[in-house]
Structures are given as structure tokens and as C-alpha cells.
Amino acid sequence: MDDSVTKTPLLRLHDVVKVYDTGEVPFTALRGVDLEVETGEFVGIIGKSGSGKTTLINMITGIDHPTSGEVVIDGTPVHELNENQLARWRGRTIGVVFQFFQLLPTLTVLENVILPMDFCSMYAPKERVDRAMDLLEQVELADQANKLPAALSGGQQQRAAIARALANDPPILAADEPTGNLDSKTADAVFGLFERLVMQHKTIIMVTHDNDLAARVRRALHVADGEIAEERIHRPRHGA
Question: Is the Cβ–Cβ distance between 232 and 220 less than 8 Å?
């Protein structure tokens, strides 16, 4: 029996268009994008500045709404949700990692990781500290838990941001230039963490300008002029 007939992708974009009203001449950032992503895929989105790659990931995370088209993630029509529904949905479904970390500066690293659990009422209150510490252990930051973000290096802050993104155990991690503000060694360590998460069946969608990192993802999408211009499938490396 052919399972492909009944298999539903975790993420599906259908004919997604995004037009920004910039004044006299509207700017079309996405032009009828179709995309399907299965559970456990590691997808890289690459393209020049202004190509539409960040707009594309903003459609996936619900940070922005499509002008037309459909965004369906894990069975939820994201394009139909209002702002309050989106915030709750995002907190449970997608962990978002940004280039500049966006940790709250007045909270400790531990408190930053606990925050999404508090917001979405995930896990019993007494379990949240233990879960946050477990996540910080996974990203090798348990010994930094009680420090403020400013006391951490850039690489440490990004790993803390990844732990925060994983707080509610979302099926998808969306990362917008997560290594763009890091040196090459630290970027490689963060990418290695993503690879381990994929092995644990997380689905990761990563915007990057780094062609070397893009060559290491299983599937790379090249975005140009608001369209997916090219798709490359890479064989997984063994013993690398």
C-alpha cells in the first residue's frame, strides 16, 4: 500500500502571496509560494537580502500574515488565526530563534527558559524549573542558569535562546539567521546542536546566508524575487 497517498505534511504553504503597501508602489515579497515540509526534516532557506526568505519564515511562524494563500501547520490553518490565537498557537507549536537572541535582559537565563511554559501554561509549575534546567543541560549552559544574559557570550546567549525555543517541546524550530551574529566556530557548534535536534525528530527550518551551512542541511531552498527558485537535496554525511 502506498502511504504517500494519505500522508499529510507537517507544514504546507499553498499559493502564498505577500504584498507590502510601501506607499505609491506596493512591494510583492512572496509570489505564489508552494512548500511542503515533513516531520523531522532539516530545511535551509537561502537567498540574497530582499529575496523574500525572512518573509517566508515569518509566514511559517505566524509573525506575519499572507496577503493571500494558505499556511497549514500540523493541521492548523495559521492564516485564519487572530493575534491572540496566533500567540498561543505559536507558543505551543513553533520555537523561534532569532539572530540577535532576544532574551529578556532583566531575567536570568533560567527565567528566560521558563517564561514560555508560564505563558502557555505548559507543564505543572513545579516541573518547569526542572524542565528548564534539563534543557540548559542539553545546550551546555546549566552552570550559567542564574546569570543575566549580558554576562554570557554571544554563542552562549544563542544556545540559551534555543533552550527557550524548545521549552514547550514544539514540533518545529524556526531559526532566522541564527548564526549570523556568531563567529564561525560558535556557528558550527550551534549548527551541530540543530543536527542533534533533528536526530531527535524535531523539524527545523533555518534561514541562513552561510552557503557552507546551507550545504549541510538535508534540503536547501534557494529563494529569489519572492519565489523558490531552486531546491537541492543533500545526502546525509556519515562519519563526518
Answer: yes
